[in-house]
Amino acid sequence: MRKLTVAIDGPAGAGKSSVAKVLANRVHYLYIDTGAMYRAFTWAVLEKGIDLSDEKAVRDLVDTIDIRLEPQADLCRVYVGPTEVTEAIRTQRVSSHVSAVAALAVVREKLVKLQQAMAKEGGVILDGRDIGTVVLPQADLKIFLTASVDSRARRRYLEVQAKGGSETYEEIAASIAARDDMDSHRTVSPLKKADDAIVVDNSDLDLEQTADVILGLMKERG
Ligand code: CDP
Ligand code: CDP
Ligand code: CDP
Q: In angstroms, what is the span from residue 36 Cα to ligand 1's centroid?
């Protein structure tokens, strides 16, 4: 099969990263987690105590930050300079600030360039919010992966419970709905289905079934 570029966009908790990892493993592609890059930038903003309204400080960070992804079999290690932040970028503190950071045009410009450079050889699966619309408008296959707020919140709730977390289902559902709202309504690169993207609703599919559907579409294109 020809080495494709695959774009997967969709709302928080739709299953993008889990499905992308399953697919990347099956077809030996590289999985590039663009959300992790926005989270890494947000981690640095919090670490340095930068006020997002301070344009100069944000610009300086954009100019100097070194974000690296090291994709491995079933996870993508993330570094900011010499510091590994793979775990640190998953905290609720980062989650609650990331949408505001991702709304800044200077930040997006920088990260989009990095993502395009990482994708240029093909054989890659990128997931995010603007992959099919902005990062890779020429992608071979564009998927808009979605699921109901209820099923997304239920999945997250199970994850939180498994980790011994104390968040309630209602809190998680509210946080997901708030992020959907911010991500879809921002001026710069809002979450939006590309005209030529295929909608896959996986509210009632498990990971393997969802991967099967997308793999079928990849085979058609490849
Ligand atoms: O995994 P989850 O859906 O919770 O989020 P993520 O993919 O880690 O992305 C975190 C945040 O980064 C999103 O809520 C968006 O605000 C932003 N993001 C973006 O703006 N553009 C992307 N290509 C990827 C993420
Ligand atoms: O990356 P994104 O925020 O879109 O979602 P995710 O982190 O990949 O998936 C959120 C949770 O839903 C994970 O625990 C997945 O294992 C689970 N999931 C599922 O149970 N069934 C699916 N069809 C897709 C995801
Ligand atoms: O999506 P992925 O599996 O890569 O990361 P995650 O650890 O599931 O965390 C990403 C998102 O899950 C956060 O942005 C939150 O919206 C949600 N989450 C949450 O609300 N509460 C938690 N304790 C953990 C995750």
A: 7
| Token couple for 160 | 């939180």
**Residue 7: strand pairing partners:** 126, 142
> How far from each other are the two terminal CA atoms of the chain, in whole angstroms?
5
The preferred substitution site among 18, 90, 182 for testing ligand 3, maximizing ligand atoms within 8 Å of CB, is 90
Domain ranges of the chain: 5-211
Closest listed residue to residue 155, CA positions, set 202, 217, 112: 202
Name the CATH code of domain 5-211 (choices 3.90.550.10, 1.10.510.10, 3.40.50.300, 3.30.700.30): 3.40.50.300
102, 190 Cβ separation under 8 angstroms: no
| Tokens at 199, concatenated | 């909608």
ipTM: 0.80
Which DSSP letter does residue 128 get?
Answer: E
pLDDT digits (tens, 9 = 90+) for 50-65: 999 999 999 999 999 9
For the cut 90, the answer to whether the pLDDT of residue 73 exceeds it is: no
pLDDT of residue 16: 96
Is 18 near ligand 2, meaning CB less than 6 Å away? yes
